[in-house]
Amino acid sequence: MAISYQPGFGNDFETESVAGALPQGQNSPQQCPLGLYAEQLSGSPFTAPRGKNERSWLYRIRPSVKHTTSFRRMDTNDWLSAPQHSEPSLALGQYRWDPIPAAPSATGFLAGMHTMTTAGDVMTQVGMAAHVYDFNDDNPDEYVCNADGELLFVPQQGLLTLHTELGVMTVEPGEIALIPRGMTFKTVCAKQTVRGYVCENYGAPLTLPERGPIGANCLANPRDFKTPVAAYEDKETPCRVVYKWCGGFHETHIAHSPLDVVAWHGNYVPYKYDLSTFSPVGALLFDHPDPSIFTVLTSPTEQDGTANIDFVIFPPRWLVAENTFRPPWYHRNIMSEFMGLIYGQYDAKEEGFVPGGMSLHNQMLPHGPDAAGFEKASNAELTPQKLDGTMAFMFETRYAQQVSSYAASLPSLQKDYAQCWDGLERKFKSPT
C-alpha cells in the first residue's frame, strides 16, 4: 500500500478517504455525509489563543463513545510514569548503557516498551519519560490510546508502521514520528524486530523552536514535516483497546476497529520527519556553539527559554572552527540529558557509546568528552572536517530524571562508565 502525506507543520489540513465524506462550510451538520458521525478531538482548551489552539474534526463510522465499554485495570511490564513511588536503586551518578537485550520471540508492542527514566509529574502534566522499545510481533486487533502525553518515536532498527485515527505513517531509523496525546493507534512491525526510543511528553505539545537571529530558514523547516492522509479500518472483529491514563493502564473490549475515521480536518495531527532534512548551523570562525542550535522540537514552559523537553540531534555536519576544541565542552547544566545513538559514532566519545545505547547526565552533574576524545580533539589538525554517518539525539528536560528499576538492573548498564574520564591528567603549568 502506497502511503501519502501532506506537508507542513502546524497547518490546518483536510483530507477524505472517500469522496464526499468531508462536510464543507461547517463542522457539524445535522446529518453528516455518508451516515458518518462528527466528533471533535481537542488537544488544547477550547479558549486557548488561536495560535495555540489545537483541534481536529473527525467524521467516523462510529463515535468514539462506541470505542469503549467497561474498563478493567491491567498490569504492564515496564512502562512507568512520573513520579515513581520507589527510591532509586542506583546512587547518584552519570550512567551509560549498551543496547538492551533482544526481546524474546512473539513480543508485542506493550510488552516491548521499557521505561528508562521519568521526570516531573504525569498528574500535573509536567515533565516526561524516556523509554526504549524492542518488539517483533503484531496484534492486528490491539490498539493503544495514551491520555497522559504525546509519544515521539525515534527508531534505531527496523521499519515501524503506525496506524492512527487520522491515517498511516511508516518510520525508520533516521526519521521520527509523533502521535498526539489521546489519539488511538496501533503498531505494525511485519513480525520483524524493531527497536528504538520513545519520549513521552506530559507537558505542552512539542513545537518548532524560535530561530531568533538565525531568521526564517535552517534548522527544521516546516515543509519537511509530513502528516498522513485519511485512511480507515472498517472491520467487525473483537478488538482490545488499552488506555494509559494518569500513569495506569486500563483495557476495554469492543467488537470493531476504533480506527474508523473516513475524513477529517484540523491541526491536531500525527506527523513524521526525516532527520536528514535538518539544516544545521554552527560556528564559522571559532568556539563550539551551544547544543541548543540543534533543537528539532521543543515543549515550552511558562518560563521563557526553559523547556519542558528539547529534542536535540547531532547530525552529519562540517566542523570548521579555528583554534577551537571542536567537540562539546565539559559542562554542568540545569537541564537533564538523556542521550541515544541511532547510528555511527558520537564525536565526544571515542568508545563505549554504541548505536542503540543510552546515557543519562542529570542536572548539575559534570560530563563531557572522554579522555581519549579530549586528547584527540586537543591535538587534531584543524582542517575542515566532515562528521558523516552519525546521528545522536537528546531528550533534554528542565526536571531531574529518575532511573527506573528496569534501567538500574539492566546487565547492559556500564558500571565503569565514569572511568572514561580517569585519563584526564593534570596539565597545569605554573608560571613560577
Give the tags.
single chain; 432 residues; mainly beta; Jelly Rolls; 2 domains; nine-stranded antiparallel β-sheet; seven-stranded mixed β-sheet; 3% helix
Would you give an account of this structure?
The longest helix is centred in the last third of the chain and has 9 residues. The chain has two domains: 203 residues, Sandwich (Jelly Rolls); 136 residues, Sandwich (Jelly Rolls). Strand 7 and strand 8 form a beta hairpin. The chain is globular, with a radius of gyration of 23 Å. It has a nine-stranded antiparallel beta sheet with strand order 1-16-20-13-10-15-8-7-28. A seven-stranded mixed beta sheet has the order 5-18-17-9-14-11-12, with no helix packed on it. It is mainly beta. The chain is built from two helices and 28 strands. The model has no long low-confidence stretch (mean pLDDT 95). The protein is 3% helix and 35% strand.
